[in-house]
Amino acid sequence: MAYIIEKHNQIKINQIRKFLRRGNGFSTTFSRNGNIEQRLNAYWKNDHLIFEWFKEGKKLTQETYLAKSKTNFGSDRLWWKCPKCSRKCGALFDYGGVWWCRVCGNLKYQTESSNKNERVWPKVDRLLDKCQYREYLTRIDTLEDCNKPKWMRWKTWEPLKKRHNQLIGDAFDRIMKITKR
């Protein structure tokens, strides 16, 4: 059975890279709906990090290693090394009291378990957010009557508007096909 990634706490390597380069530990808090769900502390011990956190009143610890790879421009890129499979990954997920990669935790993205009709709406929402029209438009409005945002370039605005209207049209076509059945 697959679980949804968005419902699990995650630590992305690029969010804590500055702490790692300085040799410091870090502390982070995870919250849902304004309630603190979990607090994670990490500190260096020799060549690896020790994660400490509390789950249901118990103090849990886990050793976590880092991996490096060379980039094309000569620097190093940091990765988490999954404690279970040793795979390089950009994020570790809290999965039942351990921090693993998404493959070991059998985690899937929300869109992987939704059908084609459901996947169109997050795309439309992202486009509306990019245009900053969220407060003026609903999902089903087209951008034909909207003015280009003052800060946006025409070469960005035109394809964005075209893509939004295409998504809306495709969504209505699919809805019409479903209702005609």
Describe this structure in words.
With 181 residues, the chain is an alpha+beta fold. It folds into 2 domains: 108 residues, no CATH class; 67 residues. 29% of the residues lie in helices and 34% in strands. It has 3 helices and 11 strands, in the order E-E-H-E-E-E-E-E-E-E-E-E-H-H. The chain has a 6-stranded antiparallel sheet with strand order 3-4-5-6-7-8, covered by helices on one side. A 3-stranded antiparallel sheet has the order 2-9-10. Strand 6 and strand 7 form a beta hairpin. Helix 2 runs antiparallel to helix 3. The longest helix is centred in the C-terminal third of the chain and has 27 residues. The chain is elongated, with a radius of gyration of 22 Å. The two termini are 32 Å apart.
What are the key terms here?
181 residues, alpha+beta, three-stranded antiparallel beta sheet, 34% strand, elongated
Quick take:
The protein has 181 residues and is of the alpha+beta class. The protein has helices spanning 13-22, 116-131, 154-180; strands at residues 3-4, 10-12, 26-32, 35-45, 48-55, 58-70, 76-81, 88-89, 91-95, 98-100, 107-108.
